[in-house]
From TrEMBL:
PROSITE patterns: NEPRILYSIN
Annotated protein name in UniProt: Uncharacterized protein
Database matches in Pfam families: Peptidase_M13 (PF01431), Peptidase_M13_N (PF05649)
Cofactor dependence: Zn(2+)
Record domain Peptidase M13 C-terminal: where: 625-824
InterPro entries (alphabetical): MetalloPept_cat_dom_sf, Peptidase_M13, Peptidase_M13_C, Peptidase_M13_dom_2, Peptidase_M13_N
Region annotation Disordered: where it falls in the sequence: 1-58
Gene Ontology molecular function: metal ion binding; metalloendopeptidase activity
PANTHER family found in the cross-reference section: GH26575P-RELATED (PTHR11733:SF241), ZINC METALLOPROTEASE FAMILY M13 NEPRILYSIN-RELATED (PTHR11733)
Organism encoding this protein: Haemaphysalis longicornis (Bush tick)
Basic and acidic residues composition-biased segments: 46-58
């Protein structure tokens, strides 16, 4: 029996077979297209990297997205074709006019069509997914090969900076950089040519430098803050009290001050009316002398102190006489001294005739000056003090001590008292006690008070002609008022002064950034110690111990804690008033003997001799390593442009501040630092092999110096400085690179786009060495032949760094490029 072939069924079967074959073709086409695109991406990625990493990454992402979009479009076309097939099949089935047998199979036909359609969709989606997975895996493999290749490191994004601080630094560099000298020819001239042209030497100055100009600007900022900072009258902070002390000092020592009125008020408070005579009872007079010494540290006749007995180890009271200054009684100065006494008596008393007062004071001082100090010490119980100091009883001494001293109540009559120079002490008390009743002792004591107080607080006293003649070195004569008052406030309130500078010059974020730079440089030195091939293992262990023991005195914001020994005395200070005399007495009461600089032995010169170096000790514009303490001291006042600027690219701060910190740190590990151990004691902790290896490396620097400096003595003198500067620059450079890699960003100056980050670091380093020197430069070791000190330090340091040649593209034969580079770290 012949088989019947239905034309419609055959046509459906052929169409079905044709449509089922389409997904397989589309899958092959999709895979083929994916492989082609992937191969194209791979070939392009293997080409030389001529674009930046960020551009390549974006290109890869763009092409990957195109591939996926193409796969999706192919899937959509397959789905639309399948939908057309289903519609055509439905139209054909609706046209059937067959027998009931055929209509019975109509549901089966629909089921078969739906099953086939589902199979086609599943196969298409599987093909698309497999192609997408293959493409994504290949793209990921390409990306991984790029990230782990030698040429490719984690990307660092360039970020131009245009903040006010960046604009200031940009302006500073633009005015200094040379347009004529190439950096590879003479880097110092390239960086400093414009600055030197704008800062010629004037007058008798022997040099002017970037650092001296910055120091002058810091002083101006501090003076402006002292003059303009708002100070409350009540509940003053410790920094407020510092500023209030300075302003009251300026007001009192100015022409419009009220110092004489304050002096008169002080005398009236103690029942004195100097220069008029006063005749109190002996106990009252003695009580007044002890009050002056114990409460305000005004020792006009003797000093009263608690000491520890060397024999028994217990506390004892020491009595020391005060000797008047005999130098003013010399024949050449005696008349001026008498005139000074008369002038101050006239200013305070208003009369013109004080001959008796002047004669009394001079005669008493002359008598005491003739009595030599024997330098002996006699220890007796208080109950026997009468035998040593006639005319006094132990009650006369102990009653005021218990009244004015917080520990006076614990002193008993059986306790020991040490009397220094008892013969002189006896003569002093005899003269004073015998003249209490006639008022002459009050004249002498009153004048000693005027001399002690007016020296520091009176404009009239400091500007008298006799004062300038008797004390020409400035301890009591007229100086610049603002300079004197600032130095006085610094000396009396050192912790508060450091807190004031930090508050004026830095913000909390800036302090944090400074600490981060120091930590980075110190960490880089630690890494270099591990890699120092010139050190043997034993010496390296000792070096690590010294680095670990190194103390850092870094900027910090002032936090007052009256419970600590450093601040407990300052906790006694009240709120300061506009009266400098009142503030001065309050400080003397709180700080005690530490108020006055150390005077000559047994001298009663008011305040002693204030050395000119006092201010310089408190304003050190530097970063310094102290070998005796194994400490790095970073003075706050140096943290200003060009050394440090908040908000500028990190390369600038690492090139200046980071290089300074690195320079000072390496001084603890060079040939001189190798002679001082971790606790600052003289101890040679280097081995002989380490010493020989170091000297061999140092000789390389000496050979370089010989190209610039003819004399071997001068080269040897400069060698340690040059080695330290070069080492500091290396540490700063690698510390900055570590910071850059960790932060993932590289900031540049928007106005100086020609300088990259590395170039900015080297420029910042050399800018700190810009200076102009004068005729005395060679005598002061600021010039060596035709080369200045700054030029040598800058050029030799950058010449020894291959990173510098790479940053500026210096050829091998360029002056700033050396085939024999020297380095220690």
């Amino acid at each position: 029996m012949a088989t019947f072939a239905h034309p419609v069924r055959n046509s459906v079967s052929e169409a079905d077979m044709q449509e089922q074959s389409q997904p397989e073709c589309q899958e092959e086409q999709t895979e083929e297209r994916t492989e082609q695109l992937t191969e194209q991406l791979t070939e392009q990625e293997e080409q030389p990297h001529s674009v930046q990493h960020s551009d390549r990454a974006s290109l890869l992402r763009e092409r990957r997205d195109r591939l996926l979009e193409s796969l999706v479009r192919s899937s959509r076309r397959a789905s639309s074709q399948f939908a057309d097939y289903i519609s055509a099949a439905q139209r054909r089935v609706s046209c059937w006019r067959q027998s009931r047998d055929w209509r019975v199979n109509e549901n089966a036909l629909y089921g078969a069509c739906l099953l086939g359609a589902a199979l086609v969709v599943v196969v298409s989606l599987a093909c698309v997914a497999r192609a997408g997975i293959r493409s994504a895996s290949r793209l990921e493999a390409i990306r991984e090969r790029r990230l782990h290749s030698v040429e490719n490191v984690p990307t660092v994004q360039e970020q131009p900076c245009s903040s006010p601080s960046c604009n200031q630094v940009s302006h500073m560099l633009l005015l200094s950089l040379s347009h004529e000298v190439a950096p590879c020819a003479n880097f110092y001239e390239f960086v400093c040519e414009g600055w030197k042209r704008r800062h010629p030497l004037r007058g008798d100055k022997y040099q002017v430098s970037v650092m001296t100009e910055a120091e002058r600007d810091v002083r101006k900022r501090l003076m402006l803050a002292l003059e303009t900072m708002a100070i409350p009258r009540r509940n003053q902070t410790q920094i407020d009290k510092l500023v209030a002390l300075y302003r009251s000092c300026v007001g009192s020592l100015s022409r419009e001050g009220q110092s004489l009125r304050d002096l008169r008020a002080f005398f009236r408070l103690h029942n004195y009316n100097w220069p008029e005579p006063h005749a109190p009872e002996q106990p009252e007079f003695f009580d007044h002398l002890l009050e002056l010494d114990i409460r305000w540290n005004l020792a006009v006749a003797f000093r009263y102190q608690l000491v520890r007995d060397q024999d028994t180890g217990q506390s004892a009271v020491a009595l020391r006489p005060v000797v008047p200054d005999a130098s003013v009684l010399q024949p050449s100065l005696r008349r001026s001294y008498q005139s000074l006494i008369a002038s101050m008596a006239t200013l305070l008393g208003g009369e013109a005739n004080y001959v008796d007062l002047v004669d009394t004071v001079v005669s008493v001082e002359s008598l005491l000056a003739k009595q030599p100090l024997d330098g002996t010490r006699l220890a007796v119980p208080w109950t026997r003090v009468l035998s040593v100091l006639p005319g006094t009883t132990y009650q006369m001494w102990l009653r005021p001590f218990a009244k004015y001293h917080p520990l006076g109540g614990a002193i008993r009559g059986s306790d020991t008292v040490q009397v220094h120079s008892p013969r002189y002490f006896n003569s002093l008390l005899t003269v004073l006690l015998e003249n209490v009743a006639n008022g002459r002792s009050s004249w002498y004591v009153g004048w000693r008070l005027v001399l002690a107080l007016a020296c520091h607080t009176s404009h009239e006293f400091r500007n008298l002609r006799e004062t300038r003649f008797l004390w020409p070195r400035g301890q009591c004569s007229a100086l610049d008022v603002h300079t004197h008052c600032r130095s006085l406030a610094q000396r009396l309130m050192r912790p508060q002064w450091q807190g004031f500078i930090t508050k004026v010059l830095l913000s909390p974020d800036a302090v944090f950034e400074v600490l981060g730079i120091v930590k980075r440089v110190r960490g880089t030195l630690e890494e270099r110690l591990r890699q120092a091939s010139w050190m043997d293992p034993e010496t390296r262990v000792r070096a690590f111990s010294k680095l670990e023991a190194l103390r850092e005195q870094l900027p910090k914001f002032f936090v007052f804690d009256g419970r600590t020994p450093e601040y407990e005395r300052y906790a006694r200070l009240p709120d300061f008033s506009p009266s400098f005399l009142d503030n001065w007495l309050a400080i003397r009461h709180a700080l005690g003997p530490r108020v006055d600089p150390t005077p000559p032995s047994n001298s009663s010169l008011p305040g002693g001799e204030v050395e000119a170096e006092d201010e310089e000790e408190l304003l050190r514009f530097e970063v310094a390593y102290e070998a005796a303490a194994n400490a790095l001291r970073l003075h706050v006042d140096v943290l200003t442009p060009p050394v440090f600027s908040r908000g500028v690219p990190a390369a600038f701060n690492f090139g200046s501040l980071g290089a300074m910190v690195g320079r000072e740190l390496t001084l603890g590990f060079d040939r001189v630092g190798g002679q001082v151990d971790a606790v600052g004691e003289p101890n040679w902790w280097w081995s002989l092999d380490t010493r020989r290896n170091y000297e061999m490396r140092e000789r390389c620097f000496l050979d370089q110096l010989s190209r610039y400096v003819n004399e071997s003595t001068a080269a040897s003198k400069l060698a340690r400085r040059v080695v330290a500067e070069s080492s500091g620059l290396r540490l700063a450079f690698f510390a900055h690179k570590a910071h850059e890699m960790e932060s993932g960003r590289r900031e540049t100056l928007s106005d100086v786009t020609a300088l990259s980050g590395d170039q900015l670091l080297f420029a910042s380093f050399c800018y700190a060495h810009c200076h102009s020197v004068g005729k005395l430069a060679e005598v002061l070791d600021l010039r060596f032949g035709t080369h200045s000190l700054g030029e040598l330090l800058c050029n030799i340091a950058v010449t020894n760094m291959i990173e510098f040649a790479g940053a500026f593209g210096c050829a091998e034969d360029a002056k700033m490029s050396s085939l024999a580079r020297c380095r220690i770290w």
